[in-house]
Amino acid sequence: MKESSDEDEDDEEEGKEDGDEEEENEQEVSKVNGSQSSNESSPTDSRSSGSRGTKNKRGNQELNLCEEVLLGLQKHEDAWPFRHPVDLKKVPDYTKVIHRPMDFDTVQKKLQTMNYEDAWQFIEDVKLVFENCKIYNDESDDVYACGQRMQEHFKELLLKILPELGKMLAEE
Question: pTM for the full model?
Answer without folding.
Answer: 0.68
